[in-house]
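Components:
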Amino acid sequence: MSAGAYVEVEDLRRVFDVSKPWLNRVIERAPRQTLKAVDGVGFTIRRGETFALVGESGSGKSTVARMVVGLLPPSAGEVRIADISMTDPRQAAARRRLRARIQMIFQDPYASMNPRWRVGAIIAEPIRAFNLIQGEAAIRERVGELLRLVGLHPDDARKYPHEFSGGQRQRVAIARALASQAEFLVGDEPTSALDVSVQAQILNLMRDLQDRLGLTYLFISHNLAVVRHMATRIGVMYLGRLVEVGDKATIFGRPRHPYTRMLLDAVPDLAHIGRARTPVSGEIPNPIDPPSGCTFNPRCPHANNRCRAEVPKLIDGVACHAVEEGRLGA
Amino acid sequence: MSDTVLSVRDLRVVFETRRGTLTAIDGVSFDIARGEILGVVGESGAGKSVTGSAVIGLIDPPGRIAGGEIRLRGERIDNLTPEKMRRVRGRRIGMIFQDPLTSLDPLYRVGEQIVETIRTHTDLSAKAARARAIDLLTEVGIPAPERRIDGYPHEFSGGMRQRVVIALALAAEPELIIADEPTTALDVSVQAQVITLLKRLCRERGTAVMLVTHDMGVIAEAADRVAVMYSGRVAEIGPVESVVRAPHHPYARGLMGAIPTLSDTAERLTQIPGAMPRLTAIPPGCAFNPRCPNVFGRCRAERPEPLPVDRTRVACHLYDERGEAA
Ligand SMILES: Nc1ncnc2c1ncn2[C@@H]1O[C@H](COP(=O)(O)OP(=O)(O)OP(=O)(O)O)[C@@H](O)[C@H]1O
Ligand SMILES: Nc1ncnc2c1ncn2[C@@H]1O[C@H](COP(=O)(O)OP(=O)(O)OP(=O)(O)O)[C@@H](O)[C@H]1O
Ligand code: SF4
Ligand SMILES: [Mg+2]
Ligand SMILES: [Mg+2]
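Structure:
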C-alpha cells in the first residue's frame, strides 16, 4: 500500500444492465444494453484528508461511493480501506470488523431513517449492530454524548425524525455515522438538500469533527464552491471516468482538463456579479451510447481525430490528449 | 408613465388552516422595471414562491391574498375575476417553473403547445404561428428546430426541455416573466446556458423578470436588483452589488457569509444559529430577532419597516431614522 494511503481505489468499474425486459427485446429485436456507470476509476485518500468527487449529474459519483463503502459490488477493480480489501472473499472477517468504521451520509437523511424509531434508537442502531457498548444505560449515555457532539440536546433522543428540520436530521445522521466509532465517512451530497445557512452549519460541523476526531472523508457534491471549501484533494468525473485529480490549489488555481476548466467557468459565483459566464456548448451525452475516444470530445474546443478515437489515460493527474501533447497552454 | 412593469405593495397572503390563519406573506413591496431582472432569494419557506404565485394569480384556497395591491403597468391585477386573470396570465405574464414537465403536456408535441399558446393570444394563422414557434425555438437555442418542433417533451433532455418552457413562456410576448427556480434541476453547464439565455431575452425584449432562486451565484450573475426574503417579509432590497457585496441587514449579512464561494479562503463559514421560524411561531417584532447577532430591546417588540439605507431598503432597527449602522 502506498505510503499514507488509507483508501485505495484501483481501476474500479461498474456496468449496469439497462436492457428492456426480455419480452420487449424479443418483440422489438432490441439488443441487450449496458451502461458503464463507472469506467476505470482510481484514486487514493490519505488518512485525515477530504477527498472530493465532483461532476455533473450522472457522472458516476454515487456509484463510486456505493462501491467504496461496499453497498454495491464492482464489476471489476479493487477497493482497499486500511489495507483490507472490500472485494476479496478471503478477507470477509476483517471486512466485517472494518464495516463499523465506515459510514455513509446521504443527501436525504430522512430516507435513511426509520420514521417509527425514536432518534435515540436510530443513533444507537450501529452501536447495537456491532455490539460496541454493553448495557442500556451506557448506550443511552453514549447517544447523549453523540447528540451533544453534533450540536443537538441529549433529550432529542426521545423525538421522532419528523420532529426535526432538515438540517437537524442531517445532524442526527452524522451522529449515527459517528456512533460506530467511524473513522471514514462518505458523504453523498450531504448538504445539497439544505438551505445555505443550514449547509454552513453542517459543513462547519463536519470540519470540526474531522479536526477533533481525525476523520477521513470522501465528499461528494456537484457544488464546486462547497467542494472548494471542504476538500484537500479533488477528483473530477465525467461520464464514469476520472478526468482530472489534484490538490485543491491545482484544481481551482490551474485546472488543466478542458472539462474542469469548462465546469469552473460555468459555476455561478457570488464573486462574479454581472459577469457573463463562458457559454458552454452541448450537454452530457447519453451514457448508454457514449462518444468514442475521449467522451468529452463532442463538447471540447480542443478535440482532434485522436480524441475521437483513443481513450486518454490519466497521466500525471489529467486524462486529456491535448494536455499530454502540450497543445493546451498551462 | 414610468418604466415600472410590476408593482407590489404591502402584499399579504394568508392560509386558513385548522390551527388558524397563517400569514405567509406579510407586507411585501417591490417593483420591477422594464428589462430588469429582480432576484428573489431567501431560505426555504421564506415566501418566494407564494409571492410569485400571488403575482400570477395562482394562490389557491385555503390560501388567499388578504391585503395589498399588485399592479401590472399600473393596472390592478390582484382583484381580477379568475377568467380575466387567466387571460393576463399567459398573455401578459409568462411562467417558468423548476420542473419543465409541469409546464409541458407530455401527450402533445412541443410545437403544438407553443402554437396553441401563440394562437390563443394573437390573431396569427396556424401556419404563421408554426413559423413563429420555430423562430422561438431557434431563439432559445434548440438545434434543428424545424425537426424538433414535432418532438414530444420526453424526447428532450432536461436542459432542452427548460428551453422549450422558456420558448413557451415567451410565445405570447409577455411583459413580465415569473421564473421560480428555473435552473435548480439543471446541471451547472446547462444552467449557465439557460441563465445566459434568460438574460439576453430580457435585455433584447425588455421583458421584466422575477427570478426566484436559492442560488445566490445565479442571482449575482443574472439579477439587476435583489430582494432578500425572510419569514414572509423583505429584509433587504437593492442593487445586486450592494446587497451581495455589502449587505446591511444582519440576516442578509449572515446569508452572504454562509455561502462558500470559489474565491473564499475562510476556514469557517458564517453560521446563523437556529432556523427560520415556522409560520405558526413567528416571533413578535423583527422576525429575525431570535437568530440575530445584533438584537436589542426594540427588535423584540416593534416590527422594523423597510427604510432607505444607502442604495438599498432595509427592514432593521439598526438603521432607523437616524440612518446609521451600529
Ligand atoms: N441501479 C442502476 N441501474 C441502472 N443505471 C444506473 C443505476 N445506478 C446508476 N445508474 C446510472 O449510472 C450513471 C451514474 O449514476 P450516479 O448515480 O453514480 O451518478 P452521480 O454522479 O451520482 O449523479 P447525481 O449527481 O445525479 O447524483 C447514470 O447514468 C445513472 O443513470
Ligand atoms: N398551500 C399551503 N398551505 C399552507 N401553507 C402554505 C401553503 N403553501 C405555502 N405555504 C407556506 O407558506 C410559506 C412560504 O412558502 P413558499 O413556498 O413561498 O416558500 P419558498 O420561499 O418558495 O421556499 P422554497 O425555497 O422551499 O421553495 C411556507 O411556510 C409554506 O409552508
Ligand atoms: S431588527 Fe434587530 S433583530 Fe432584526 S435584524 Fe435588525 S438588529 Fe437583528
Ligand atoms: Mg449521486
Ligand atoms: Mg419555492
